[in-house]
Amino acid sequence: MTIQWFPGHMAKARRQVTEKLKLIDIVFELVDARIPMSSRNPMIDEIISSKPRIVLLNKADKADDSITKQWIEYFKEKDIPALAIDAHTGTGLKQITTLAKTLLKEKFDKMAAKGIKPRAIRALIIGIPNVGKSTLINRLAKKNITKTGDRPGVTTAQQWVKVGKELELLDTPGILWPKFEDQLVGFKLATTGAIKDTILNLQEITVFALNFLKEHYPNRLKDRYNLDELPEEIVDLFDEIGKRRGCMMPGGYIDYDKTSELVVREIRSDKLGRISFENPGQFIEQ
Ligand code: G4P
Prior knowledge:
The protein is α/β, with parallel strands linked by helices. The chain has helices at residues 7-21, 44-47, 65-77, 94-113, 133-141, 183-191, 202-216, 218-224, 234-244, 256-268, and strands at 26-32, 53-58, 82-84, 121-127, 160-163, 167-170, 174-175, 248-249, 253-254. It has 2 domains: 7-170, P-loop containing nucleotide triphosphate hydrolases (Rossmann fold), CATH 3.40.50; 201-282, Orthogonal Bundle (Conserved Hypothetical Protein Ylqf, Chain: A, domain 2), CATH 1.10.1580. The strands form 2 sheets. Strands 1, 2, 3, 4, 5, 6 and 7 form a 7-stranded mixed β-sheet that branches. Strand 5 and strand 6 form a beta hairpin. The structure holds guanosine-5',3'-tetraphosphate. GO terms for molecular function: GTP binding; GTPase activity; RNA binding.
């Protein structure tokens, strides 16, 4: 993550999002399908309370399908429609416009009744860094990027990206911060690659990831690292993986840094399969 979030920056980011909200009909809140709660801004409900919203569970290609379905239900129960998408390949993107039209039907019908000329739905994409905002804008825009702000007589500095005839996106997304003062959130963001390793200790991230996998996906760990049984202690699991993968230092000691890099890299590149690091059951009471 290149952005350093100091209180001043947070206030500025929030102000910028609030300004953009005035221009749009609907918010597309982008979250990482593997960690939908940890990859969102803790104040998001308050910040966009006045606008309809669709939660887009992006990178669904990397998440556990059955858990993504549970997340969609979770948001539905909170009256927030959610869709699973893969902005990289474009899977699920067609549904976005259809759903936005349904959600805004009443507003647009009212506008038509007042004699206001029909126009495209205006949307803002919001999300934390690295969640896939640029990828989604580029994918939706295809090659039809029309910077309508350049037209004579259009005074606003904001520019719009056309998505077919029915949707327009603000070309700069709203960037918000995650709840990174929470260490567990930090570990999840680091494991999925949303924040860079240097911010947190890579060995600690790996301990978190291995503990999680041991509890939730033990067979994936066994298969990937050729283990008949998973050791009780996490340090022993580290040792086994290090030994099997040749992450050694002179004298036959395990190189924990090298082992950590290997494990985190393999998780991020889906070598252990599609993994969700959060499920709605953990958040029901909140
Ligand atoms: P941002 O604007 O929100 O900061 O995110 P951006 O679009 O730059 O996306 C961050 C990374 O996530 C990019 O990878 C992008 O290709 C990847 N990405 C975005 N959407 C999806 C998706 O639906 N599925 C998958 N699998 N990947 C997605 P990158 O540039 O290669 O960076 P990195 O992977 O090295 O972090």
